[in-house]
């Protein structure tokens, strides 16, 4: 029996204050909270959402480390990181009013060195972003940073994107980004081909209207894709037209093509569901 598209193309729950990290072709999302009937509901700490960048599918994993349910209560924030070594570890932590709550991972920090940094205020001339907080600043190369979203100093949710060059100490705005997708208290991670993946967060000013939590994944391209990636995307989008030619490809390439077909099928399904939800909301409003 074929899998239900609703289950196959499911997505992580909407949330803010969560954390995310990329390892290989997978994006890991953990924690956060949502608002239900004006109440803050913290998401369970014994579940992990994993996004496969190749297929575009989400995997919902429960009880991934036998987390105690007591860690799901009254959490203010989360952090997540990968520790490299002979056995890579996914390090998870939670805070309550900025105090470390997850005693289970405290031993992992005993061997970590402490790095002391001197901070230097940099004066920048020319074009630069507005003042903001609750944004993300993602390294996208050895000397470039990608700034996205946040809440402005006059409490306006932002959806602008900027690239900062450390070498020239200058900012450049990405004017092609949509201005209708504001995000704050979201996460942003760098993919393997220079794309920045923004997940979750809120589209509203959390201080006054804590109802705009999001669960869509925004992907921002910061550099040209490889020729292989462009070809795979083209085949995936036109799978129906190329159905007879696809089996003629080398077996290894066929597997990559099948993942891209699934990716674009998932994208189409989610866009159709979103359009239907918006249509239903308009009908209810009228």
Ordered list of secondary-structure elements with their pairings:
Elements: H1 5-8, E1 19-23, E2 26-30, E3 33-36, E4 39-42, E5 47-52, E6 58-62, E7 77-83, E8 89-96, E9 99-100, E10 132-133, E11 136-139, E12 144-152, E13 157-165, E14 170-173, E15 187-190, E16 195-199, E17 217-221, H2 227-237, H3 251-285
Antiparallel strand pairs: 1-2, 2-5, 3-4, 5-6, 7-8, 8-9, 10-12, 11-12, 12-13, 13-14, 15-16, 16-17
Helix pairs in contact: 2-3
Report on the architecture of this protein.
With 286 residues, the chain is α+β, with helices and mostly antiparallel strands. It is built from three helices and 17 strands. The protein has helices at 5-8, 227-237, 251-285, and strands at 19-23, 26-30, 33-36, 39-42, 47-52, 58-62, 77-83, 89-96, 99-100, 132-133, 136-139, 144-152, 157-165, 170-173, 187-190, 195-199, 217-221. The strands form five sheets. Strands 10, 11, 12, 13 and 14 form a five-stranded antiparallel beta sheet that branches. α2 crosses α3. The longest helix is centred in the C-terminal third of the chain and has 35 residues, at 251-285. The radius of gyration is 21 Å and the shape is globular. The model is unreliable at 66-114 (pLDDT under 50).
